[in-house]
Write a structure and sequence with these properties.
alpha/beta; 9 helices; single chain; 18% strand; Rossmann fold
Amino acid sequence: MIDRRILLLMSMALLPASASAAPRRLLPSPQTFDYGPARLDIYARAGASSLPVVLFIHGGAWRAGNRTNVDVKPRFLLDNGFCFVSIDYRMLPKADVATQANDVEQAYRYVRANIARYGGDPNRIAVMGHSAGSHLAALTGLRGGLPGVAALVLNDTRAYDLEALARSGGMTPAYARAFPDPSQWRVLSPATHVGSRKHPPTFIAYSRASGRAAASRAFAERLRATGTEVTLFDGSAYSHMSINRDFGEGDTLTRAVMTFLKAALG
């Protein structure tokens, strides 16, 4: 009897070349810059000009991760006519969340001042974040720290309203370590900064991870009450990690984000 694994390998070897996966186009190496407290990478195609820009803020519970945690985002977005930027920011415990938010704002100012040199349009920047990065994108974007930002893409966090999170019993160890001082919860909550003014168009996605749907829906309703254009994406088919990792792989989330970005950035 032939081993099933051997049979599978034999079958794959007999596939015609056209049936095998096409190799991905090589991604240009990013150009790395020191924006002050940390570094950022700019991915751009040679000869491009006036392209919309996605600035990405990685997750990692405010204490882990780095700007290289981008999966296929750079390649996908460059192939679809965008510039892509991924930033580092200082991590817990050396830098608290308030400092991290200031880092994000400084990185954004650097990108807005310099991105035209690399083919990007400084007036068409969308800031995208996952997990902790989603919280930082929402906090800085809604408190006015990203002047001129064209859109926000917020991907799967519960940290929109920290006081509500604590009341619901959702202040898990990861959140408690990031936000140890209850007197700071309001100022570090994106929901606090919604106010009554209209904000940039905002895409909010949530996974099936605990509490994400309720927190995202409540935040979306709060934003909509100001007249802000909000797209709420039900990502309950995704885990907390796959809703970030799968972006750019032709999945439902990718298609929804791209529709949103094209409408928001033109």
